[in-house]
């Protein structure tokens, strides 16, 4: 099993590298960079929901918190290395604190979803109300609904004038996504990852075996928050502005739709759903005849009814059935008697 997982991971990496160099020939890198960031954000939820069984409406909270942390620190420091690290660390610490309160408080899945949703809405409301001059951290003003523009974007470490933008930023984001994918795959292949999956299946049984399920879930939740924070940091550098819209309820719903359509229980599925639906949203955004939310809702309904497991798991199951069918036919062909037409 470990060998097959390693082979699958290698194939995904090879396919990812091919896509990384081929995609710019078809789509402009500005759009591709955003799709890659969306894929990383979807991966963060696909990890904690698909493998940990934790339905979280708060990925946008970690996403926006990472972006705001980066923007604030970049204005105060004037260089991107430390702000980028803090853009990952601060959401991770916030996710750790929130996860510890929820899981050690023994909240049920329903209340957990409600709490994470409320936290996201609190961030959204608060950031919209910070337009006054008193809402300032160092030299950075939060800006209310106007957000924070004009901060230092990603640069080569140690050289603030060596900006990373356009195609270079695309490659950095894509390589970061591949590295995060490999690290998450290694995490899931470790004893910690297997325990997390076991908790998803039967938490009580895992606790009876002597494991602290609450600690395991809090740690997994923290990892998901760190990945979402990294996505937010990259988004801030791509957009060159951060606004309260990053905490919006619509953004939270979109991430969940990406994971459901792509397929839970896999890592590639949520990323694939984010790229496909994100690109569809981009194309629909260029016209005004059809509402984007209506199209996404229809896609969600169709996928849930026709492909309950999601697009990627359904395609994998179809491929596996075909492979088994062909493998069962092969011995029969080798063992049958030759006919006149064969001679």
Q: Helices, strands, pairings?
A:
Layout: H1 2-22, H2 29-50, H3 59-77, H4 81-104, H5 109-128, E1 136-137, E2 140-141, E3 148-149, E4 155-156, E5 159-163, H6 166-189, H7 191-201, H8 203-208, H9 213-239, E6 241-242, H10 249-262, H11 268-284, H12 292-306, H13 311-335
Antiparallel strand pairs: 1-2, 3-6, 4-5
Helix pairs in contact: 1-6, 2-6, 2-9, 2-10, 2-11, 3-4, 3-9, 4-9, 6-7, 7-9, 10-11, 10-12
Q: How would you describe this protein?
A:
It is built from 13 helices and six strands. 71% of the residues lie in helices and 4% in strands. It is mainly alpha-helical. Residues 337-343 have low confidence and may be disordered. The longest helix has 27 residues, at 213-239. It has one domain. A two-stranded antiparallel sheet has the order 1-2. Strands 3-6 form a two-stranded antiparallel ribbon.
Describe the structure concisely.
The chain is mainly alpha-helical and 343 residues long. It has 13 helices and 6 strands.
């Amino acid at each position: 099993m470990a060998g097959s997982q390693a082979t699958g991971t290698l194939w995904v990496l090879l396919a990812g590298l091919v896509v990384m160099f081929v995609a710019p020939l078809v789509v402009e890198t500005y759009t591709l960079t955003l799709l890659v960031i969306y894929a990383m954000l979807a991966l963060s939820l696909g990890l904690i929901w698909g493998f940990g069984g934790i339905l979280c409406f708060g990925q946008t909270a970690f996403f926006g918190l990472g972006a705001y942390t980066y923007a604030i620190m970049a204005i105060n420091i004037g260089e991107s290395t430390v702000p980028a690290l803090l853009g990952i660390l601060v959401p991770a610490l916030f996710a750790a604190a929130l996860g510890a309160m929820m899981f050690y408080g023994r909240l049920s899945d329903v209340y957990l979803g409600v709490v994470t949703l409320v936290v996201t809405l609190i961030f959204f409301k608060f950031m919209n109300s910070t337009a006054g001059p008193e809402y300032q951290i160092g030299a950075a003003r939060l800006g209310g609904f106007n957000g924070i523009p004009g901060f230092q974007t990603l640069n080569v470490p140690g050289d603030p004038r060596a900006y990373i933008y356009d195609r270079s930023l695309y490659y950095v984001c894509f390589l970061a996504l591949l590295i995060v994918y490999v690290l998450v795959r290694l995490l899931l292949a470790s004893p910690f990852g297997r325990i997390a999956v076991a908790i998803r299946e039967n938490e009580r049984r895992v606790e009876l075996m002597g494991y602290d399920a609450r600690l395991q879930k809090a740690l997994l939740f923290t990892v998901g928050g760190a990945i979402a924070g990294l996505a937010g940091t990259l988004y801030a550098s791509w957009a060159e502005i951060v606004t309260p819209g990053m905490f919006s309820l619509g953004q939270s719903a979109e991430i969940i739709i990406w994971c459901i359509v792509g397929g839970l229980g896999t890592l590639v599925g949520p990323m694939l759903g984010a790229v496909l639906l994100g690109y569809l949203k981009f194309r629909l955004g260029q016209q005004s005849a059809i509402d984007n939310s209506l199209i996404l809702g229809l896609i969600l309904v169709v996928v849930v009814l026709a492909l309950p497991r999601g697009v990627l798991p359904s395609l994998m199951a179809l491929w596996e059935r075909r492979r088994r069918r062909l493998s069962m036919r092969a011995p029969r062909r080798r063992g049958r008697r030759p006919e006149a037409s064969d001679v």
